[in-house]
Specification:
By secondary structure, the protein is an alpha+beta fold. It is built from 5 helices and 7 strands, in the order βαααβββαβαββ. It has a single domain, classed as Gcn5-related N-acetyltransferase (GNAT) (Aminopeptidase, 3-Layer(aba) Sandwich).
């Protein structure tokens, strides 16, 4: 099982930033986020408290990440879910999402939302379904053409 850490220091935020840069490059060009460069310039500001960034490590190697950003007092948006290809199929994504849920509950959040692309990112979509996420209406605007919005109520 991976070790999962919530970023709280510069070194962990650097690991998170490096993983999110890989994630952005892995996405098809039409799914890349327009705000990535701006967000990367202040990664601690974007994902420090009350938001959270998570880094998974296996045998001391960073292998995956995820984050959440508060949308309002009850809801957080799950972002930047990524597992390096050589670590896939080991339950790391599931463990990261479970860490998100635990921390969100601990902070009193009631709902997690996310956006994905059901057809292009089929494995991600299927993971979210197995974790109890269901399709929902838009929670906000996104910067790509065909989002699939999903939610999971924590209570």
């Amino acid at each position: 099982m991976p070790e999962i850490t919530i970023a709280a220091d510069a070194a962990t935020f650097r690991r998170f930033a490096a993983l999110t840069a890989e994630y952005e490059q892995m996405l098809p060009p039409d799914l890349r986020h327009e705000d990535f460069t701006t967000e990367s310039a202040d990664i601690e500001g974007a994902y420090g408290y009350p938001n959270a960034a998570f880094v998974a490590t296996t045998d001391g190697k960073a292998c995956g990440c995820v984050a959440f950003a508060r949308l309002d007092a009850r809801t957080a948006v799950v972002k930047k879910m990524y597992v390096r290809p050589e670590f896939r199929g080991r339950g790391i994504a599931r463990a990261l999402m479970q860490a998100v849920e635990i921390e969100a509950r601990r902070r009193g959040l009631e709902r997690l939302v996310l956006d994905t692309e059901r057809d292009v990112l089929r494995e991600a979509y299927n993971l979210y379904v197995t974790l109890g996420f269901t399709d929902c209406g838009p929670y906000g605007e996104v910067d790509y053409a065909t989002p699939t919005f999903m939610e999971r109520w924590l209570k």
